[in-house]
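Box 3.1 A note on notation
Throughout this textbook, protein chains are presented in two layers. The first layer is the amino acid sequence; the second is a token string describing backbone geometry. Keep the layers aligned when reading.
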Amino acid sequence: MNQQWKTITIITSLFIIFIIGVVGLGGALTPLIIASALSYLLFPLIKKIEGKGLKRVYSVSIIFVFLTLILVTITASVIPGLVSDGHKFLTDLPQNTAKAINRAEDIASNFGHEIEINKESIILFIKDHISSLSTGIIKSVSTGIKTSFGGISSWLVAILNLFLIPLFFFYVITDYEKHISSIKSLIPKSFIPKLSHYSQLTNTVLSGYIRGQLLVALCLAILYAIGLSIVGLKFGILIGIVSGLISIIPYAGFTLGFLAALVVGLAHYSGIGQITGIIIVFVIVQTLEGLLITPKLVGDKVGLSAFTTMLVLIVGGNLFGLIGMLIAIPIAAILKSVLSELKSEYQQLDFYKD
């Protein structure tokens, strides 16, 4: 067998083994991906704890216990209230929107301005989307129940897959460097210098942006929830937390949160003071986010202009919906770094110089 056929045979065999492994994992593939993503995000923290003199197994155990406690606490004390408020908020939204529009027209009239808003079209639009959302949720839950409880074996597999996430996380992060080295050992040596360079660029953007953006969203959720609670807004905690978490998508959290807060504030109007308070809360939090929180936690890991960010979000949303909007910014930042290097190499070509 000559060298070319030997290479093709080995690569094909490895590819077939990989496909068999992916297919064979079945439902366990998702827990493995989630565990790997968590390991990637938390590995620097593990290294910092190791730097204090603790062994890897103890460092991982500390992080694992800490995350478990947070998850249990949130699930037990926060989630039930948010679910209840969320259901009530969606149920009341059409009625609150009608009240808010009427109140806005009254306020404008008091200041000598007459505005006419097509309430019927807006309320119909909201009802249709709430109905679609509810139908989608019910359909997803029904499908999940049928899949999970269709038989004892599938039910056990569903439960097992849930518990596989922490198990996979422990094993992946404990030997994190070994797993990375194993993957690198399969890369042809001629590709390693260039691939290492681009993977370093990718890692710098991804690690800094994703970790930073998650922390930014958490900070904004806390600040919005506290601010809207102080103002006395009904559903203030719910709107604040959701606004902060949606802030992972640039501009979305502020826009949707501000509109939702205004609708609820106008629907339960008790004076211009609360409306002013809502505006002040969003202005202050946005100012803190722009001047302090994002620069400190994310820095200039992305380096995209506001105009480019909007274009990238539109492209991501049109191509892949919500998931596309979530991944659009980091992917665009990586492409920007790669294209910048490719541009420099292109400008060194004789084709360009001549």
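The CA atoms of residues 90 and 333 lie 36 Å apart. Residues 1-82+150-186 form one domain.
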